[in-house]
Structures
1.
Amino acid sequence: KAGVTQTPRYLIKTRGQQVTLSCSPISGHRSVSWYQQTPGQGLQFLFEYFSETQRNKGNFPGRFSGRQFSNSRSEMNVSTLELGDSALYLCASSSVLPGGSEAFFGQGTRLTVV
Amino acid sequence: QKEVEQDPGPLSVPEGAIVSLNCTYSNSAFQYFMWYRQYSRKGPELLMYTYSSGNKEDGRFTAQVDKSSKYISLFIRDSQPSDSATYLCAMSGTSGTYKYIFGTGTRLKVLA
């Protein structure tokens, strides 16, 4: 069974540009959540999607947005990039079983803003 | 004060030692508790997933949750150099939501 796939693995962008990251969840999983990981702040929740609807949002500015498609694939977009957006962006997928279930992470997209 | 506190380490132990990793938390609404292992330049890998208080064992790993003390632990028996990684605790309060709150991670080094 294939795991969570994130593309691209690495990105270098310039301040002010925008970027789109992609996440393909494990087959059959309908929930996708996104996290930002930095050395200083650790893993911080960005947002969560289930059946194309955003269910939760973290404390990030409106420059960070996301969406989920009918096939459960998800994208996140960061507009007007800042140097502080340099981070590892991680996507996690889950099957959302009654009573809770585990979230599995992809390898991440490492974004560097210069 | 952060919702989840975790000693960043680094923690160095000899091969074969029992390792104890811990997190404390302040939000009594947390019900789901996870431990992830993250190797350098990789995504977090789920090790243990527990609900409410109690113990759970999987091979060399044992997870303990004490909700009365707001304290969770991960024990690694017979530690191996391949266990060298960063260990992250994570928590959530509601079934079916994946808004996890993570600890900052503990770096573990197992010396051969």
Note: The CA atoms of residues 36 and 89 of chain A lie 5 Å apart.
2.
Amino acid sequence: DVKVTQSSRYLVKRTGEKVFLECVQDMDHENMFWYRQDPGLGLRLIYFSYDVKMKEKGDIPEGYSVSREKKERFSLILESASTNQTSMYLCASTRGSIGNEQFFGPGTRLTVL
Amino acid sequence: AQSVTQPDIHITVSEGASLELRCNYSYGATPYLFWYVQSPGQGLQLLLKYFSGDTLVQGIKGFEAEFKRSQSSFNLRKPSVHWSDAAEYFCAVGGGATNKLIFGTGTLLAVQP
């Protein structure tokens, strides 16, 4: 079975801190994604990566950056956390060929105080 | 513009009753359609997907969905709901080599005894 793991289930940070969210997948997937999930807004794509060291902005990239140094690992970085970044963050991965479903991690609930 | 609409934010059904969750999409090319389920505190799990062929697709947990191109719809159905089906359900549309998905805002299902 595909497994996507995220480094923390719950995280509490202070405004202005630099925050790292880590995601690891074990199925050699080419594509990886970071979403944030907020009530009433569904899932919104922050960034995605289609190969090592390659990345593209999603719909809401402001305030975030990403890093993909190894194929299995995709990191989301909040350079200076703000209270409006309090949210559930979901990582997903998928094979590069068309039509494959995305597999999701359990999510990280981040609270910025 | 590409989009997914789930018009029902919250639905309550009685255990044993039938269920239909609505999903409408707008997508320029041939869509790949997905339904995911999210149990409380969990990541998303794929219920079923449609790419081509038979417009009625079967998924896990007794769910099915019907693709209607003329109505741009992909509604999810289950003939008899179980208490364990209480969760949030997301419809998504995608395509292209990166398998990016556009998600609806979700429908929260409550099941009453």
Note: DSSP finds no helices and twelve strands in chain B.
